[in-house]
Fold this protein.
Amino acid sequence: MASDAPQRAAGTLRLDAISCRFGSRLILDTVSLDAPSGRVTVLLGPSGCGKTTLLRIAAGIERPSAGRVLIDGEEVAGPSAFVLPEHRRVGLMFQDYALFPHLTVRENVAFGLGALPRAERGAVAARAIEGVGLARLADKRPGQLSGGEQQRVALARALAPSPRILLMDEPFSNLDRGLREDVRSSTLDVLRRAAITTIVVTHDPEEALAIGDHLVLLGEGRVIQAGSAQDLYARPVSLAAARALSEVNAVPGRFSNGGLATPLGTIPAPSAAGAEGADGWLCLRPEVLRLAPAGSGTEGRIVAKTFRGASVLLSVAVKGLPSPLRVAVEGQAPDEGETIRLAVADGAGRIFVQDASRSPAAKD
Ligand SMILES: Nc1ncnc2c1ncn2[C@@H]1O[C@H](COP(=O)(O)OP(=O)(O)OP(=O)(O)O)[C@@H](O)[C@H]1O
Protein backbone atom coordinates (compact mmCIF):
# COMPACT_ATOMS: atom_id res chain seq x y z
CA MET A 1 0.00 0.00 0.00
CA ALA A 2 1.38 3.35 -1.04
CA SER A 3 4.66 2.22 0.51
CA ASP A 4 6.47 4.02 -2.28
CA ALA A 5 4.40 7.19 -1.76
CA PRO A 6 6.86 9.12 0.41
CA GLN A 7 9.49 8.80 -2.32
CA ARG A 8 7.37 10.36 -5.05
CA ALA A 9 5.41 13.61 -5.08
CA ALA A 10 1.75 13.32 -4.07
CA GLY A 11 -0.88 13.80 -6.76
CA THR A 12 -2.59 17.08 -7.49
CA LEU A 13 -6.30 17.57 -8.10
CA ARG A 14 -7.84 20.70 -9.52
CA LEU A 15 -11.52 21.28 -10.17
CA ASP A 16 -11.96 24.21 -12.47
CA ALA A 17 -15.38 25.93 -12.66
CA ILE A 18 -17.34 22.68 -12.45
CA SER A 19 -21.08 22.91 -13.07
CA CYS A 20 -23.50 20.02 -13.04
CA ARG A 21 -27.13 19.92 -14.11
CA PHE A 22 -29.57 17.11 -13.58
CA GLY A 23 -32.46 17.94 -15.92
CA SER A 24 -33.33 21.55 -15.29
CA ARG A 25 -31.73 21.60 -11.80
CA LEU A 26 -28.34 23.19 -11.38
CA ILE A 27 -26.70 21.04 -8.67
CA LEU A 28 -23.18 22.50 -8.88
CA ASP A 29 -22.53 26.04 -10.01
CA THR A 30 -18.97 26.87 -11.18
CA VAL A 31 -17.22 25.13 -8.29
CA SER A 32 -13.43 25.47 -8.28
CA LEU A 33 -10.98 23.98 -5.86
CA ASP A 34 -7.36 22.98 -5.60
CA ALA A 35 -6.67 20.09 -3.25
CA PRO A 36 -3.29 20.64 -1.57
CA SER A 37 -0.86 17.85 -2.45
CA GLY A 38 -0.43 15.14 0.12
CA ARG A 39 -2.97 16.73 2.47
CA VAL A 40 -6.58 16.17 3.51
CA THR A 41 -9.19 18.45 1.96
CA VAL A 42 -12.67 18.31 3.46
CA LEU A 43 -15.82 19.15 1.53
CA LEU A 44 -18.29 20.29 4.15
CA GLY A 45 -21.90 21.23 3.58
CA PRO A 46 -25.49 20.36 4.42
CA SER A 47 -27.27 17.38 2.93
CA GLY A 48 -28.12 17.86 -0.73
CA CYS A 49 -25.65 20.68 -1.41
CA GLY A 50 -23.80 18.62 -4.04
CA LYS A 51 -20.78 17.17 -2.15
CA THR A 52 -21.17 13.60 -3.37
CA THR A 53 -21.87 14.76 -6.92
CA LEU A 54 -18.60 16.73 -6.87
CA LEU A 55 -16.71 13.66 -5.60
CA ARG A 56 -18.29 11.50 -8.31
CA ILE A 57 -17.23 14.04 -10.93
CA ALA A 58 -13.65 13.96 -9.62
CA ALA A 59 -13.71 10.15 -9.77
CA GLY A 60 -15.18 10.08 -13.27
CA ILE A 61 -18.43 8.32 -12.30
CA GLU A 62 -20.38 11.45 -13.24
CA ARG A 63 -19.62 13.89 -16.07
CA PRO A 64 -19.72 17.63 -15.40
CA SER A 65 -22.02 19.78 -17.56
CA ALA A 66 -19.23 22.37 -17.72
CA GLY A 67 -15.76 22.91 -16.30
CA ARG A 68 -12.65 20.75 -16.10
CA VAL A 69 -11.09 18.18 -13.78
CA LEU A 70 -7.29 18.05 -13.79
CA ILE A 71 -5.22 15.34 -12.12
CA ASP A 72 -1.48 16.01 -12.04
CA GLY A 73 -2.13 18.78 -14.55
CA GLU A 74 -3.78 16.45 -17.07
CA GLU A 75 -7.37 17.17 -18.09
CA VAL A 76 -9.37 14.05 -17.20
CA ALA A 77 -12.79 15.66 -17.72
CA GLY A 78 -13.64 18.72 -19.76
CA PRO A 79 -14.20 19.95 -23.27
CA SER A 80 -11.17 18.15 -24.67
CA ALA A 81 -11.06 14.88 -22.75
CA PHE A 82 -12.83 12.32 -20.65
CA VAL A 83 -10.71 9.70 -18.91
CA LEU A 84 -12.63 6.69 -17.56
CA PRO A 85 -12.61 6.19 -13.75
CA GLU A 86 -10.41 3.10 -13.93
CA HIS A 87 -7.70 5.06 -15.75
CA ARG A 88 -7.60 8.06 -13.41
CA ARG A 89 -5.58 6.45 -10.60
CA VAL A 90 -8.14 7.68 -8.13
CA GLY A 91 -9.11 5.60 -5.09
CA LEU A 92 -12.69 5.72 -3.89
CA MET A 93 -14.03 4.81 -0.51
CA PHE A 94 -17.78 4.71 -0.09
CA GLN A 95 -19.87 5.44 2.97
CA ASP A 96 -21.06 1.80 3.19
CA TYR A 97 -17.53 0.46 2.40
CA ALA A 98 -18.95 -1.75 -0.41
CA LEU A 99 -17.00 -4.83 0.73
CA PHE A 100 -17.75 -8.24 -0.81
CA PRO A 101 -19.26 -10.32 2.01
CA HIS A 102 -18.15 -13.68 0.57
CA LEU A 103 -14.50 -12.67 0.17
CA THR A 104 -11.88 -12.57 2.91
CA VAL A 105 -10.11 -9.35 3.91
CA ARG A 106 -7.14 -10.41 1.77
CA GLU A 107 -9.35 -11.16 -1.24
CA ASN A 108 -11.32 -7.92 -0.83
CA VAL A 109 -8.11 -5.88 -0.81
CA ALA A 110 -6.57 -7.80 -3.73
CA PHE A 111 -9.75 -7.35 -5.78
CA GLY A 112 -8.78 -3.93 -7.11
CA LEU A 113 -5.26 -5.06 -8.08
CA GLY A 114 -6.21 -6.72 -11.36
CA ALA A 115 -3.75 -4.52 -13.22
CA LEU A 116 -0.81 -6.12 -11.40
CA PRO A 117 0.78 -9.45 -12.32
CA ARG A 118 -0.91 -12.19 -10.29
CA ALA A 119 2.30 -12.97 -8.39
CA GLU A 120 2.53 -9.42 -7.05
CA ARG A 121 -1.08 -9.04 -5.95
CA GLY A 122 -0.75 -11.06 -2.78
CA ALA A 123 2.29 -9.11 -1.55
CA VAL A 124 0.77 -5.70 -2.35
CA ALA A 125 -2.51 -6.64 -0.63
CA ALA A 126 -0.59 -7.93 2.40
CA ARG A 127 1.33 -4.64 2.68
CA ALA A 128 -1.92 -2.65 2.47
CA ILE A 129 -3.55 -4.81 5.14
CA GLU A 130 -0.49 -4.47 7.35
CA GLY A 131 -0.55 -0.70 6.80
CA VAL A 132 -3.99 -0.43 8.43
CA GLY A 133 -3.05 -2.84 11.24
CA LEU A 134 -5.26 -5.74 10.18
CA ALA A 135 -2.67 -8.44 9.39
CA ARG A 136 -4.07 -10.81 12.02
CA LEU A 137 -7.57 -10.60 10.48
CA ALA A 138 -6.53 -11.08 6.84
CA ASP A 139 -8.40 -14.39 6.46
CA LYS A 140 -11.67 -13.25 8.06
CA ARG A 141 -14.75 -12.21 6.12
CA PRO A 142 -16.36 -8.75 6.57
CA GLY A 143 -19.26 -10.23 8.58
CA GLN A 144 -16.76 -11.41 11.22
CA LEU A 145 -15.33 -7.89 11.72
CA SER A 146 -16.42 -4.89 13.75
CA GLY A 147 -17.56 -1.70 12.00
CA GLY A 148 -14.19 -0.04 12.64
CA GLU A 149 -12.31 -3.03 11.22
CA GLN A 150 -14.51 -3.07 8.12
CA GLN A 151 -13.74 0.61 7.64
CA ARG A 152 -10.03 -0.21 7.72
CA VAL A 153 -10.46 -2.96 5.13
CA ALA A 154 -12.18 -0.46 2.83
CA LEU A 155 -9.31 2.00 3.42
CA ALA A 156 -6.70 -0.68 2.65
CA ARG A 157 -8.56 -1.66 -0.51
CA ALA A 158 -8.74 1.97 -1.69
CA LEU A 159 -5.03 2.54 -1.01
CA ALA A 160 -3.65 -0.79 -2.26
CA PRO A 161 -3.35 0.21 -5.95
CA SER A 162 -1.33 3.33 -4.87
CA PRO A 163 -3.80 5.85 -6.29
CA ARG A 164 -2.67 9.43 -6.92
CA ILE A 165 -5.80 10.78 -5.21
CA LEU A 166 -8.06 9.27 -2.57
CA LEU A 167 -11.73 10.27 -2.43
CA MET A 168 -13.75 9.35 0.67
CA ASP A 169 -17.51 9.85 0.95
CA GLU A 170 -18.65 10.19 4.59
CA PRO A 171 -16.08 7.56 5.67
CA PHE A 172 -16.93 7.67 9.38
CA SER A 173 -20.69 8.13 9.35
CA ASN A 174 -21.44 4.39 9.70
CA LEU A 175 -19.56 4.16 12.98
CA ASP A 176 -20.90 4.54 16.51
CA ARG A 177 -20.07 7.82 18.13
CA GLY A 178 -17.70 6.18 20.63
CA LEU A 179 -15.71 4.44 17.91
CA ARG A 180 -15.68 7.27 15.41
CA GLU A 181 -12.94 9.35 17.01
CA ASP A 182 -10.54 6.40 17.30
CA VAL A 183 -11.12 5.27 13.73
CA ARG A 184 -10.78 8.85 12.53
CA SER A 185 -7.42 9.31 14.15
CA SER A 186 -6.06 5.94 12.98
CA THR A 187 -7.29 6.75 9.44
CA LEU A 188 -5.50 10.09 9.60
CA ASP A 189 -2.30 8.30 10.68
CA VAL A 190 -2.52 6.02 7.65
CA LEU A 191 -3.20 8.94 5.28
CA ARG A 192 -0.31 11.00 6.70
CA ARG A 193 2.07 8.07 6.37
CA ALA A 194 0.95 7.51 2.78
CA ALA A 195 1.16 11.29 2.18
CA ILE A 196 -1.69 10.95 -0.27
CA THR A 197 -3.83 13.80 -1.60
CA THR A 198 -7.23 13.08 -0.08
CA ILE A 199 -10.70 14.56 -0.35
CA VAL A 200 -13.19 13.70 2.37
CA VAL A 201 -16.89 14.53 2.17
CA THR A 202 -18.73 15.17 5.40
CA HIS A 203 -21.72 17.07 6.70
CA ASP A 204 -20.29 17.07 10.25
CA PRO A 205 -18.49 20.33 11.12
CA GLU A 206 -16.71 18.85 14.12
CA GLU A 207 -15.28 16.12 11.90
CA ALA A 208 -14.30 18.65 9.24
CA LEU A 209 -12.39 20.75 11.78
CA ALA A 210 -10.72 17.67 13.27
CA ILE A 211 -9.39 16.13 10.06
CA GLY A 212 -9.18 18.83 7.41
CA ASP A 213 -5.89 20.51 6.49
CA HIS A 214 -7.97 22.44 3.98
CA LEU A 215 -11.72 23.03 4.21
CA VAL A 216 -14.10 23.81 1.37
CA LEU A 217 -17.49 24.94 2.57
CA LEU A 218 -20.26 24.23 0.06
CA GLY A 219 -23.80 25.59 0.10
CA GLU A 220 -26.44 25.12 -2.57
CA GLY A 221 -23.92 23.97 -5.13
CA ARG A 222 -21.46 26.82 -4.63
CA VAL A 223 -18.25 27.31 -2.69
CA ILE A 224 -19.07 29.63 0.23
CA GLN A 225 -15.52 29.74 1.58
CA ALA A 226 -12.27 27.77 1.40
CA GLY A 227 -9.19 27.86 3.63
CA SER A 228 -7.64 26.30 6.70
CA ALA A 229 -9.86 25.09 9.51
CA GLN A 230 -8.52 27.91 11.72
CA ASP A 231 -9.29 30.50 9.05
CA LEU A 232 -12.82 29.39 8.48
CA TYR A 233 -13.51 29.18 12.21
CA ALA A 234 -12.06 32.59 13.06
CA ARG A 235 -12.87 34.53 9.89
CA PRO A 236 -16.10 33.29 8.31
CA VAL A 237 -17.17 35.38 5.31
CA SER A 238 -20.84 35.40 6.25
CA LEU A 239 -23.31 34.43 8.93
CA ALA A 240 -24.03 31.21 6.98
CA ALA A 241 -20.31 30.37 6.95
CA ALA A 242 -20.03 31.01 10.70
CA ARG A 243 -23.08 28.82 11.38
CA ALA A 244 -21.76 26.01 9.18
CA LEU A 245 -18.85 25.34 11.56
CA SER A 246 -20.49 25.54 14.96
CA GLU A 247 -23.36 26.99 16.86
CA VAL A 248 -23.30 30.79 16.97
CA ASN A 249 -25.48 33.44 18.50
CA ALA A 250 -26.17 36.02 15.80
CA VAL A 251 -26.64 39.53 17.18
CA PRO A 252 -27.64 42.19 14.63
CA GLY A 253 -25.96 45.57 14.70
CA ARG A 254 -24.61 48.51 12.73
CA PHE A 255 -20.96 49.45 12.22
CA SER A 256 -20.25 52.83 13.68
CA ASN A 257 -17.17 54.60 15.10
CA GLY A 258 -14.86 51.58 15.18
CA GLY A 259 -17.42 49.22 16.65
CA LEU A 260 -20.65 47.37 16.04
CA ALA A 261 -23.59 48.94 17.90
CA THR A 262 -25.78 46.05 19.15
CA PRO A 263 -28.38 45.40 21.86
CA LEU A 264 -25.43 44.07 23.90
CA GLY A 265 -23.68 47.45 23.65
CA THR A 266 -21.10 48.73 21.18
CA ILE A 267 -18.48 46.05 20.64
CA PRO A 268 -15.10 47.29 19.30
CA ALA A 269 -14.50 45.84 15.83
CA PRO A 270 -11.46 45.76 13.53
CA SER A 271 -11.77 48.41 10.83
CA ALA A 272 -11.83 45.80 8.05
CA ALA A 273 -14.88 44.12 9.62
CA GLY A 274 -17.49 46.43 8.11
CA ALA A 275 -17.98 49.82 6.44
CA GLU A 276 -19.18 52.73 8.57
CA GLY A 277 -23.00 52.71 8.63
CA ALA A 278 -23.31 49.16 7.21
CA ASP A 279 -25.43 46.53 8.88
CA GLY A 280 -23.66 43.48 10.21
CA TRP A 281 -23.71 40.61 12.62
CA LEU A 282 -21.83 39.96 15.78
CA CYS A 283 -21.48 36.18 15.77
CA LEU A 284 -20.82 34.81 19.23
CA ARG A 285 -19.75 31.26 19.75
CA PRO A 286 -21.30 30.16 23.08
CA GLU A 287 -17.90 30.17 24.87
CA VAL A 288 -17.53 33.97 24.70
CA LEU A 289 -20.81 34.82 26.40
CA ARG A 290 -20.40 34.97 30.19
CA LEU A 291 -22.52 35.74 33.20
CA ALA A 292 -21.53 39.19 34.45
CA PRO A 293 -21.66 40.71 37.95
CA ALA A 294 -24.47 43.11 38.88
CA GLY A 295 -23.91 46.58 37.46
CA SER A 296 -22.07 45.37 34.35
CA GLY A 297 -23.02 43.74 31.03
CA THR A 298 -26.55 43.55 29.61
CA GLU A 299 -29.69 42.39 31.35
CA GLY A 300 -31.36 39.16 30.22
CA ARG A 301 -33.95 36.69 31.48
CA ILE A 302 -33.42 32.93 31.47
CA VAL A 303 -36.17 31.30 29.42
CA ALA A 304 -34.79 27.74 29.31
CA LYS A 305 -32.12 25.69 31.03
CA THR A 306 -30.71 22.41 29.68
CA PHE A 307 -28.35 20.16 31.60
CA ARG A 308 -25.50 18.96 29.34
CA GLY A 309 -23.24 17.10 31.75
CA ALA A 310 -20.10 19.19 32.14
CA SER A 311 -22.03 22.40 31.45
CA VAL A 312 -25.51 23.87 31.49
CA LEU A 313 -26.96 25.56 28.44
CA LEU A 314 -29.03 28.64 29.19
CA SER A 315 -31.37 30.35 26.73
CA VAL A 316 -31.40 34.01 27.66
CA ALA A 317 -33.91 36.54 26.27
CA VAL A 318 -32.39 39.99 25.82
CA LYS A 319 -34.39 43.14 25.00
CA GLY A 320 -33.94 44.11 21.34
CA LEU A 321 -32.95 40.63 20.16
CA PRO A 322 -35.38 38.55 18.07
CA SER A 323 -34.37 35.24 19.67
CA PRO A 324 -32.77 34.14 22.96
CA LEU A 325 -28.98 33.84 23.25
CA ARG A 326 -27.53 30.44 24.10
CA VAL A 327 -24.95 30.58 26.85
CA ALA A 328 -22.88 27.65 28.14
CA VAL A 329 -22.22 27.87 31.89
CA GLU A 330 -19.96 25.59 33.87
CA GLY A 331 -20.64 24.89 37.53
CA GLN A 332 -23.54 26.48 39.41
CA ALA A 333 -26.06 28.02 36.99
CA PRO A 334 -29.03 30.28 37.77
CA ASP A 335 -32.58 28.98 37.21
CA GLU A 336 -35.24 29.50 34.57
CA GLY A 337 -37.11 32.76 35.13
CA GLU A 338 -34.20 34.51 36.85
CA THR A 339 -32.85 37.81 35.60
CA ILE A 340 -29.11 37.80 34.98
CA ARG A 341 -26.45 39.97 33.31
CA LEU A 342 -24.43 38.93 30.30
CA ALA A 343 -21.02 40.09 29.08
CA VAL A 344 -19.18 39.44 25.82
CA ALA A 345 -15.63 38.25 26.51
CA ASP A 346 -12.71 38.85 24.15
CA GLY A 347 -11.55 35.96 22.05
CA ALA A 348 -11.62 34.06 18.81
CA GLY A 349 -15.28 33.19 19.33
CA ARG A 350 -16.26 36.82 18.70
CA ILE A 351 -16.71 37.37 14.98
CA PHE A 352 -17.95 40.30 12.93
CA VAL A 353 -19.48 39.94 9.52
CA GLN A 354 -20.91 42.61 7.29
CA ASP A 355 -24.24 41.63 5.84
CA ALA A 356 -24.90 43.06 2.39
CA SER A 357 -28.53 41.93 2.45
CA ARG A 358 -29.19 43.99 5.60
CA SER A 359 -27.10 47.01 4.66
CA PRO A 360 -29.04 50.24 3.98
CA ALA A 361 -28.12 50.19 0.27
CA ALA A 362 -29.70 46.77 -0.18
CA LYS A 363 -33.04 47.79 1.34
CA ASP A 364 -35.97 49.10 -0.76
N1 LIG B 1 -28.19 11.26 -10.78
C1 LIG B 1 -28.96 12.22 -10.28
N2 LIG B 1 -30.07 12.63 -10.93
C2 LIG B 1 -30.85 13.63 -10.44
N3 LIG B 1 -30.60 14.29 -9.28
C3 LIG B 1 -29.51 13.92 -8.60
C4 LIG B 1 -28.64 12.87 -9.03
N4 LIG B 1 -27.63 12.74 -8.14
C5 LIG B 1 -27.86 13.66 -7.16
N5 LIG B 1 -29.00 14.36 -7.43
C6 LIG B 1 -29.54 15.47 -6.62
O1 LIG B 1 -28.51 16.43 -6.51
C7 LIG B 1 -28.54 17.04 -5.23
C8 LIG B 1 -27.17 16.93 -4.60
O2 LIG B 1 -26.91 15.57 -4.28
P1 LIG B 1 -25.58 15.10 -3.57
O3 LIG B 1 -25.74 13.65 -3.26
O4 LIG B 1 -24.43 15.51 -4.39
O5 LIG B 1 -25.60 15.97 -2.24
P2 LIG B 1 -24.78 15.79 -0.90
O6 LIG B 1 -24.36 17.14 -0.50
O7 LIG B 1 -23.74 14.76 -1.08
O8 LIG B 1 -25.89 15.26 0.08
P3 LIG B 1 -25.82 14.10 1.22
O9 LIG B 1 -24.93 14.63 2.29
O10 LIG B 1 -27.25 13.97 1.63
O11 LIG B 1 -25.29 12.86 0.53
C9 LIG B 1 -29.64 16.35 -4.45
O12 LIG B 1 -30.78 17.16 -4.47
C10 LIG B 1 -29.85 15.06 -5.20
O13 LIG B 1 -31.17 14.63 -5.06
